[in-house]
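Appendix C reproduces, verbatim, an entry submitted by the partner laboratory led by Prof. M.T., so that reviewers can inspect both the input and the predicted structure.
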Amino acid sequence: MQQKNWRFINTGLALVVLSIAFFFGMMVVAPKSTDPQELMSTVGEVSGVVGAIGVGLVVLGMLGKRFG
């Protein structure tokens, strides 16, 4: 059994949490924007990409140090 890469796992989880916090934090700011729909569209894309990178890091970390 290979050893898990805890640095990848912790970094991935942190990225997922930060992307969720960024998304919900921007929901507070969006009503004050001149174009809230476009703002939330952009924020959603950025949060999705960061969250996906985080999930990818978690998966690589779970596979072990051979892959990470």
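The chain has one domain: 6-63. Additional entries are available on request from the coordinating office.
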